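Re: weekly structure request thread

Next one in the queue (420 aa):
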Amino acid sequence: MTTSALSQRVADSFLPDPPNSIGVAVSGGSDSLALLYLLHDFARAHHIALSVATVDHGLRPEAAAEAKMVAEICALLNVPHTVLPWVGWDARGNLQDAARKERYRLLAQWGRAQGLDLVALGHTADDMAETFVMRLGRRAGVDGLAAIAPQFERNQMRWARPLLSSRRTELQEYLAARNVTWVNDPSNDDDKYTRVRVRKALAVLSELGVDSMALADVAENLKCARDALAHHMLMTARQIAICRTGAVSVDEQAFKTLPSETKRRLVCHALKWVNNAPYSPRSSALRDVFSMLESAPAATIQGCMIRRQGQKLWIFRELNAANSHEASVLDLWDSRWRVVPPPDWTSDLDLLTIRALGPEGLAHCPGWRDIGVPRGVLLASPAVWNRSQLVAAPLAGWAQNWQAVPERGEDVFFATHITH
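Done, posted below.
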């Protein structure tokens, strides 16, 4: 591929409405360095502010020198550069997974502080193929095998992957043409990591035509299938589901007639909306819940309760999960709710907290049965407390002119379904 074609491919990922500012995560490897140079040219042409950050995991003695190398390149390009150190890893668990999560956290924190519109990552078609094979080994379904998103939201930051249709070899040829030297991380050749073994296996499979671009095409086909299934689920939800007091109720008889995949998607969508979770529960855990509901009236999963009541299947926050959260009345509670005091409130708000209503609070709400939702829904609802004294229960019929506003309302539940 020519340099101009590669540049155009990156530009097309942002046009016709380019952002005002872009952050770039650059490690010093070929993928991220190529992204930096490509975005530098694009940003100059479109008058976009560009900033760069390098996460120093502190796990290799060479890391500091590599961050310095990136800083020197940024100085030549007249692009501001920041090093983000990772400190505090307890050396437990999966190192690569922990490092990945910390990279997102540090980069998102940096991006928000800089006021950036988005942060660009150097993921390539090779990365997508490797991810596909790894998920295949975990027996992933359509969602897991579908192409990773070119843009997504995470950690209150927007992210972009402009290189998903580009091969690593193309990017290295591009850098070589510009006389740019990149860093080769030795961990990329360490067979103790699954991704490295997958990369080597793909090198063998490519002789059979199963290369990165072929797998990327398959992943894209599965993405189209996933989007169609999600659309069908959403249209179904609009017909048989209702959102009330932060819970979802589904017509059980209609639910029973749905294909199993639509059932699964609808419940996962409801769970993610109720508890504001970024990911769906594992398929095995959800199968256990469906099996339990065949003989039991309720089951719990992912901090939520699924309960059969009357002709409805209710999905709502579990009290035990909500009980672990407490917040100031000025802050977001349980990642779900904000409370608004009465306009004429004169007492000190600092004395008040938001906690789950619970059975003690519900006892002060004699009209709760008239609301028409299961008791468990109200037990996990937000209440305003002054130590042990209930001040208001906005959703349980004892509002006292306080309001509870969901962070993600009904419009979000019925909006276009997006998989991150």
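The chain has a mean pLDDT of 92. The first strand starts at residue 21 and ends at 25.
Next request, please.
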